[in-house]
Structures are given as structure tokens and as C-alpha cells.
Amino acid sequence: METVEQILLPEWLIPLSEKEPSSGDPVFTNTAVVIDKGLIKAVGDRDEVLSQYYSDDTLELPNHVVTPGLINAHTHSAMTLLRGYADDLPLMEWLSEHIWPAESKWVNEAFITAGTQLAIAEMLRGGTTCFNDMYFFPDVTASIAERAGIRATVGMIVLDFPTVWANDADEYISKGLAMRDQLRHSALINTAFAPHAPYTVSDKPLERIATLANELDCPIHMHVHETAHEIEESTARFGVRPLERLDQIGLLTHRLAAVHMTQLLPAEIETVASRGVNVVHCPQSNLKLASGLCPVHEMLQAGVNIAIGTDGASSNNDLDMLGELEQASLLAKGASNNPSAMGAFQALYSATMGGAVSLGIDQITGSVEPGKAADLIAIDLSDPSTQPVFNPLSLLVYSASRSQVNHVWVAGKQLLKDRQLTTLDLDEVLEGAKEWGLKIAQNTAS
Amino acid sequence: METVEQILLPEWLIPLSEKEPSSGDPVFTNTAVVIDKGLIKAVGDRDEVLSQYYSDDTLELPNHVVTPGLINAHTHSAMTLLRGYADDLPLMEWLSEHIWPAESKWVNEAFITAGTQLAIAEMLRGGTTCFNDMYFFPDVTASIAERAGIRATVGMIVLDFPTVWANDADEYISKGLAMRDQLRHSALINTAFAPHAPYTVSDKPLERIATLANELDCPIHMHVHETAHEIEESTARFGVRPLERLDQIGLLTHRLAAVHMTQLLPAEIETVASRGVNVVHCPQSNLKLASGLCPVHEMLQAGVNIAIGTDGASSNNDLDMLGELEQASLLAKGASNNPSAMGAFQALYSATMGGAVSLGIDQITGSVEPGKAADLIAIDLSDPSTQPVFNPLSLLVYSASRSQVNHVWVAGKQLLKDRQLTTLDLDEVLEGAKEWGLKIAQNTAS
User: Fold this and answer.
1) Mutate to test the interface with A, among B72, B83, B124 (most CBs of A within 10 A)
2) What is the DSSP string of A101-166?
3) What pLDDT, on a 0 to 100 scale, did the predictor assign at position B70?
4) Contact flag B317-A398 (C-beta cutoff 8 Å)
5) Given a cut of 80, is residue B107 above it in pLDDT?
6) CA distance A185 to A181
7) Mean pLDDT lowest for which of A403-412, B96-105, B132-141?
8) How far is B344 from chain A (nearest CA, A)?
9) H or E stretch at A328
10) Residue A270 DSSP code
11) Which residues of A, range 74-113, sit inside 8 Å of B by Cβ?
12) Which chain B residue's Cα is nearest to A340?
């Protein structure tokens, strides 16, 4: 008998170890998951596993379904502090009259600290074990994430114009690379180039990013084809649609995680598929800002990898990945007029493995397989809203709510235990958020 | 000082006593709500109320927002027992190969009892204080609802063909009327005619229902224009679209709650508006079955009263009205390409007063006003996903989840207290649901 750190004995396991379930049923019963040294050491039949491994910390999980942790493939985590600050407005009025002025007035390292902590508290309590962030002071975001024990990819943000973080594209890139260098030994934090969008970054920095990303084998995280306005502006300014411009620059590769992608011609879907570009779908943000509908069903049929993101809390207005993957599935059916579009399996797959692939970390996380990091969640289905249990996967996608996530592990460390955070002081986090809220509200009213 | 049963002192109150907030802000602070003999006796300034009224049961609700209870304006509550039974299938395959066979095999009084109890447990825990039901054995649904203390409108269901409940349209109507007679003294239970749909009820019974509804001043609850197929079939069979046929029969009045309404021509929206027809929007069901998009924004602009329903749990797959009103708002923006469509106030209004109006009970419930029934909910915003608080209404609509509903009152009786049900034994309800689930699953597999 080998002694290990922890053994989980869930009532149901959805490992997502295959892209399409070959057995016909992706849900397994009578299983055990062995966690040791941060990794999944074994997954298998309960009795067999228990005859090989022993742990002082063996957790029976009746009524629980265990899945890979959810991966929020696009967010601006510190924007939790602007949650509900302005809603129900046209995009440009929302941005230029509310969000941008508030950001330019308030965003500093303390804001990022408080906002990221609030975001991580919310994400962990909703089953998110990894998030892909794009915002200012990514070094602060990285250190907060590392301290909380959550996995993250932080964006080396790039813009043409000056902000609190840098003055021009060259400085953004050099600050980003310096951060990347500091984080090179981190087990939890990865980096991605994060040129904001085609309309905010010009060709020269984009060309440099394309070259650097290839040299460093580094992912690229970018808003692309978010609105019809973006397409019109690009056509007027560059003579081509944004995707074509990015293609000319050499950015359309498997390293690109293109966020939103609501405006796509059939030929563009083919290009995206043939180049291996990842698409990060943010359905609630797209609906809330009326940006357009991402043709998820058509892209899945073309073989495109789809990941799911919440976007920032000020355009969603939460970081609830269970809600987001349900929304993705429902909207795919509605938008394609096909009730079989993005079924429950695909929705969960996109929110886990799809995210891992989009960030180039699918060898590390995204499914429950031996050798991968123990990034896991356990969801309690013994709630009236998830009974009776014909199909735990259906319940997880279409019926469960985030409050049913009872336990969360990242790299084998339990960060949520019976809904209690183990690495963050929730009262302190809430106190920090409240103070910022009061300060911002008082200065907005006056 | 007058002694009263209970006084609530919420941090925020959203009374929805006006259709559009004249003050600019529909959220009030420093208020008190006085409950006595099942009714709201007074609503007003905290200090003024406390100088006039005294109660042994005065409840301070810091961090809570109090609103009218949510009204689920369309559901088939007992279908909770078929939650997740079949998903991701085209409508007719889903119905004819899965749902209808299961219903014809399993639906009896015991099924209705267990399924309705499960539904009520779920609805109360999510802040729903009133539901409008259409299913078999409505007398059983009524008695379960009355025992649980929740408000309900039960449908006098009518179909052309025989089911377990009746053999032909005449028998459906007479059984319905007998039930209505038995319930005439009930304080909580109302009735509505519930002809299933234009394609399942022929002209003669519809004419009789139109006459009876006028004579008895009774609402009519009907699926109308749910899918494009329904329109095509009606045009082939009757030479007109369903709405025109219903208009010829005299059914398009303020008494009609027309459910779904995804297929509407501009002229039909005008007709619906001018006749005062109520529209019950079920956004998640429409998306999940890919039925089409209800033009909510256009109807609101035309002055149509919009209510919100979850539909049954087998096409949603939950009875979560907070999720549904968020979905309604997001989808309205996406469908109309207008981020200002169905703002947070309108979404909450539709899910409360809109529902009450659609059921003809807006003199009794739907808002927090003196003289109305004390149908109230208190939602705790001290969760990381609803902080900081710039705007409690935005948080309620776009960020809160059902698990934050801490307290629920119907007719002044507290049915949920710190998330505990007071009139239903949750363990017993779950046990009943589990047994039915096992029985159905075993007989489906074999």
C-alpha cells in the first residue's frame, strides 16, 4: 500500500479525459481520485484504487459530482470593484462616460489588490480554479493569485496609448517581459501577451508580439471582432477587417486566444479553424452590451476550440462560470436554431479543457487524468433544484448554481472546504471591497 | 403605539409601487415594512413607522434588499420529476420519444404530489412566492400549494384528446370548473382556464372558454406562437396564423396570458398591445428548445405587459426566477441589438408586478404597498459576488444568485427563514423525489 496525501471518493466523476465520450456516458460511478504532491496520481475504480493507495485524508463525497476545475478564459478580475457601477447603457456611453473615467481616477496597485482578491474569492466559491486576466498592474494580479493559490495566466497588456501602467507600446511590452521573467519559476502563474484589441494596438507592436510569441512559445490573449463597429472602423482605417489584418501580421495561430468573435463571415470561420485559433466565448457580456452573437455552433462544427470566459464583472456582472457555461449552451441553441447545439458535455468541456487548450496549459490542467495538476471541484447535487438525478452532467450544466460548489482544489491544495475559503480571509476581502465601493460612490455622487 | 405581527427593517427596499420610478431611483433606504394579518399594513420611513407601530418580532435586515416576491408566470411544476430526463434534442424528438411517453407512463396523483412539493421547495428557496401552473391533476397541485402556504394560480387544463385527467374537452372544462368551485374560498389559490395551445384545442372548446372567462372574469393561460412550426401548421389547417384565429374566437383580451410568443409580426405586436394581452416570456426554455426569440423590447415599447416564467423543469432545467429575469434582460438586449433594452428595473418589474397583472391578481400582490398581501423576499447582498454595492437593483438582477434569498413571506407567513423551509419537510421532499427518480430511471433503462 502506498501512502498518499488525499483520496476523493465522489458519487459521480466527470473526468473529461476524452474530447468526446467514447463510452457514450462521460459520467462514472464507483471511482476514486488520488491526489499527491499537487498532482492527480491515479484515477480509477474505487476498490482497485483503495487496494493500492492509503491516505489519512480520504474524503467520501456522497451526492457530489467531481469535475476538473472551471477555467475562466477571459476576465479583468479587478473590475469587480466596478460591478454594477453603470448598466443598461450603449457600449460607447458606458465606456467613455462611466468606465474609463472611473478607471483613470481609481486604478492603482491598491485597487488591483482589493479587486483581484474579491474576484478570486468569488471565483473559487464558484468552482473556478484558473483565470486568464487582462488588466493593468498584472504583476500585482499575479502576486495576489499566487498568494491565494489559484492558477492564473496574467496578460502582458499592450496598448498604443499611455495609462497608469505604461506610456507606449514599447514600454508595455518591456514591462510585460520583465514581469514574465520574474514569474518564470512560478508553478501557478503563466503569462500571455495581451494586446488589447485590433483597434487599440497598431501594426508595429503587433508584429513584435507575433515574433516574440513564436520565439517564446507564449500565448496571445486579445479582444477580436467584438462589435460591428470594430469591423467598420478597421475597414475604414486599414482597408481590411480586423481578422484579415491580424492574419497578415501572422497572429492567427494556435497561440491566439481570440475573445468575443461575434462578427464572423463563413470564410473567417474556416480561416480560424484552419489556423487553429482558439475562440473565447463570453456570452453574458456579449448579450449585456448587445455586441452580437458568437457563432459557437458553426465554429464547433468547423473544429474550432471554444473556451468560455465571464469577461469583467462590470459587463456581466459576476464571475460565475457555471452560469456562463449554461448561458453558452443555451445561447448556442437559440442562435443556431438547433436544440442539439453545444450540448451539456461540450459546454463543460469548453469551460475546462477548452480553456486549458486556449491558454496552452492543457498538459497541466483541464481534465482529471493521472499526471495532471489536481485542479478539481466537487459539486453537491442534493439540492431541490438538482433532484432527481437522471444525469449529473445535465444537472451540472442546466440546473446547478454556483453555491452548490462545496470543495475546490488547485494543484492539490484545498482552497474551498465546505464553502469556506482556506487561503483568503473573506471578511477582510469584503471589508476592502466595501471601502473601495464607498470611496468611489462618494466621489461619483459629488 | 399599535402592536403588529412583524416589522421588517431592510437595508434597502425596492417596493415597485410605480411602473416607472418617478424619483429616478427605485431603491429606498431607511425604510420599514409593517406586516399584520397577512397584509402589508404600512411602508415608510423607518423612524416614523417605529414611532407608530410596535412588534415583538422586529427583524433588522442589514445587507438585505427586500422586494416583492417573484411570480413565476408559467410553469408545469410537477415536471421537476423529469428534470434532466432528456436534453439537447430537437423539440418533437424530445416530446414524442421522451417526455410524452414518460408522462403517460408515470403521471398520477402521487407523481403530482411529489413533483409539486419538490417544485415548491425549489421555488420558495429561490424567492418565488406565486406560480402559475398548467398540468394534470391541478386539484392536487392546488392542495399541495395551499398546504405549503405558497400562492398559486392553477390551470383548468383543456385538451382535445384524452389523458389521465380527462377524456375530451367538455370533461376537461367541467372538471376544471368543479375544481374552481371547490377553491372559491381559498385565500391563496386562484384558477385560470388553461387551454394548452392553439394546436391542441379546437374552436368549439376555445369559444366556450372565451364565453366562460368573460362571465366569470377568469384569466386564460395558454401557450401561443411558441414555434415556427405552430404557425405553419395553423396556416395549413385553419388558413390563418394562431393569433388571428384566437382573435376571431374573442380570446385576445386583457384576460389572456399568452406564453412564449416567439413568432410575431409587427402587426401582431400592435394587436397584442391594443387588446391588452399579457405576454409570458420564458427565455431559457425558448433558448433550450431553440423555439425562437420573443421580441420583448419591441413589445415593451408598444406597451405590452410582460411577465416572466421558467416553464417546466424539464425544458429549463430549474425553477430559478432570479436566473430567469437576468436571462430575460440579457436576451432582450442581445435580440434587439440594444444594450438599454429591458433594464434592471423592468426585469424585476416583469418578474413581480408583470406576473401579477398577467394573472389578474395585481390588486392582491406584486408590489410592496399598504393593503396588499405581504408576499416579500429578502436577499442578502453580503456575498463576494454582490459587492461592492453601488446599486442594489443591478446586483439583484445581474449578479445575485438564488442561494442569496434568505427569507420569504407569503401572505405574511414566513415560509423561508434563514434559508430553512418552515412548512415543508425538505428531507421528506427530497426522499420522495429520489424514489421517483430511481423508479423512472430503472424502468427507462430496462
Assistant:
1) B83
2) HHHHHH-SHHHHHHHHHHHHHHHHHTTEEEEEE-SS-HHHHHHHHHHHT-EEEEEEEE-SS--SS-
3) 99
4) yes
5) yes
6) 9
7) B96-105
8) 8
9) helix A321-336
10) H
11) 80-81, 83-85, 87-91, 94
12) B88
Q: Name every chain A residue with its beta carbon within 8 A of the beta carbon of B340.
A: 88-90
Q: Write down the pLDDT at residue B23.
A: 67
User: What ipTM describes this predicted complex?
Assistant: 0.97
Measured distance CA(B434)–CA(B443) in Å, rounded: 14
In angstroms, the separation between the Cα of residue B193 and the nearest Cα of chain A is 28
Contact A84 B399 (CB under 8 A): yes
- Count of residues making up chain B: 446
pLDDT for the residue A22: 67
Convert the pLDDT of each residue in B287-310 to its tens digit: 999 999 999 999 999 999 999 999
DSSP per-residue codes, B382-400: -SGGG-S-S-HHHIIIII-
pLDDT exceeding 70 applies to what percent of chain A?
A: 99
Question: Residue range B7-24: average pLDDT?
Answer: 89
> Domain segments of chain A: what residues?
2-68+373-411, 70-358
Amino acid making up residue A138: P
Question: Is B235 touching A (CB cutoff 8 A)?
Answer: no
Q: Map residue B155 onto helix, strand or coil.
A: strand
**DSSP reduced 3-state for B50:** helix
CA distance A191 to A134: 10
pLDDT at position A147: 98
Classify residue A24 by its DSSP letter.
S
Q: How confident is the prediction for chain B on average, in pLDDT?
A: 97
How close does chain A come to B389, measured CA to CA in Å? 7
Low-confidence residues in chain A, pLDDT < 70: 22-23, 445-446
What pLDDT was estimated at residue B317? 96
Tell me what pLDDT residue B446 has.
43
C-alpha cell at B393: 437593483
- Are A83 and B387 within 8 A, CB to CB? yes
pLDDT band at B237 (very low <50, low <70, confident <90, very high): very high
CB-nearest partner of A290 from B84, B290, B333: B333
Q: What is the pLDDT of residue A87?
A: 94
Q: What is the pLDDT of residue B92?
A: 78
Q: Is A288 on the interface with B (CB under 8 A)?
A: yes
Burial of B89 (0-12, 13-18, 19+ CB in 10 A): middle
> Contact B336/A290 with Cβ under 8 angstroms?
yes
How many angstroms separate the CA of residue A444 from the nearest CA in chain B? 10
Specify the fold of B70-358: TIM Barrel (3.20.20)
What value does the mean pLDDT take over residues B58-79? Answer: 98
Q: What is the largest CA-CA distance in chain B?
A: 69
Q: Are A333 and B289 a contacting pair at CB < 8 A? A: yes
Across the interface, whether the CB atoms of B394 and A87 are under 8 A apart is answered: yes
Give chain A positions within 8 Å (CB) of B386.
83
Second-level CATH architecture of A2-68+373-411: Roll (2.30)
CB pair distance less than 8 Å for A318 and B385: yes
> Containing H/E element for B103?
helix B100-106
Alpha carbon B379 to chain centroid, angstroms: 19
For A122-148, the pLDDT digits (tens) are 999 999 999 999 999 999 999 999 999
Please tell me the distance from the alpha carbon of residue B234 to that of residue B185, in angstroms, as a whole number: 39
Chain B residues whose beta carbon lies within 8 Å of the beta carbon of residue A90: 338-340
DSSP state letters, B315-340: GTS---HHHHHHHHHHHHHHHHT-TT
Per CB-CB distance under 8 Å, the chain B contacts of A91 are: 339
Whether the predicted pLDDT of B219 surpasses 80: yes
Contacts of A430 in chain B (CB under 8 A): 382, 384, 387
Closest residue on chain B to A403 (Cα): B403
Q: Does B177 touch chain A (CB under 8 A)?
A: no
